[in-house]
Design brief:
The chain has one domain (about 15-210). It is about 55% helix and about 5% strand. The model is unreliable at about 5-20, about 25-40 and about 230-240 (pLDDT under 50). The longest helix is centred in the last third of the chain and has 26 residues, at about 200-225. It has about 240 residues and is mainly α. It has helices at about 10, 15-25, 30-40, 55-60, 65-75, 105-110, 115-125, 140-165, 170-185, 200-225, 235-240, and strands at about 45, 85, 90-95, 100.
Length: about 240
């Protein structure tokens, strides 16, 4: 079932401060203007032929990354671009929907399929952004840009939570991973303008996961209705709101 919108009356979404991130399919905008303003160049691509065999397997045909790509393409109706090995990143995406996956991240967390699925789902959510491309964002203040980024990252977390339910993965590994990163950032006293605080991100992931779970329960009940019963079409209900 593709991720679109959830009818808020059917599933009882969380409070208003989170409802946008939980209910939307959109996510992080990737206009080049934003990247230049925030100093986020694309990561360096590595040669797949030079990767250790255990890391190269992730990128190979039939590897975990390709299997996740197919699942995410199915539930989002978006094909996505290439999946590329990169350094100095966990994961990122460009305007052509190419995914850059950090080889160091895979070397450290390669056995945690739930985490890898969550990270890819978050990046896939970036592809779903409804921010217009080709816009000159330089007219915005820094605070406006950071607010936009936080909101868009929240949308990506919301997409990830819902996608993980549909792909049958737990969000707990991703939540723990984000918590550990947040702890390291605080220990180093590094500012973080790009993301909401960890408590908010955790709440978005959990509530969006639950929202999709509830939507699926509603859909199953409708599918199991008697043939003599007349009820609304599931597709229209999922797309409403």
């Amino acid at each position: 079932m593709p991720i679109e919108k959830i009818n808020t009356q059917l599933v009882g979404l969380p409070p208003n401060w989170m409802s946008r991130a939980v209910s939307k399919s959109g996510a992080m905008g990737n206009a080049e203007e934003i990247k230049k303003l925030l100093g986020e160049p694309l990561p360096k691509i590595l040669n797949p032929n030079n990767l250790p065999p255990e890391i190269a397997a992730f990128f190979g045909r039939g590897g975990l990354l390709e299997r996740l790509r197919k699942k995410l393409a199915l539930i989002s109706r978006k094909k996505g671009g290439k999946i590329l090995p990169a350094e100095n990143t966990i994961a990122s995406v460009d305007e052509d929907d190419n995914l850059y996956i950090g080889v160091d991240f895979l070397a450290q967390h390669g056995e945690d399929e739930d985490l890898i699925a969550g990270i890819l789902a978050h990046e896939w959510g970036h592809m779903m952004s409804d921010l217009p491309k080709g816009v000159n964002w330089s007219k915005l203040t820094w605070e406006q840009i950071f607010e936009m980024r936080r909101n868009e990252e929240g949308d990506a977390d919301g997409f990830a939570g819902r996608a993980m339910f549909l792909m049958n993965y737990s969000p707990e590994s991703m939540i723990k991973f984000l918590e550990a990163n947040d702890k390291r950032r605080k220990e180093k006293k590094l500012p973080c303008h790009k993301y909401h605080n960890h408590a908010t991100r955790r709440a978005i992931l959990i509530e969006s996961y639950k929202a999709e779970e509830k939507a699926m329960e509603v859909a199953k009940k409708l599918f199991l209705q008697s043939r003599d019963s007349v009820g609304p079409k599931v597709g229209k209900i999922i797309g409403a709101g």
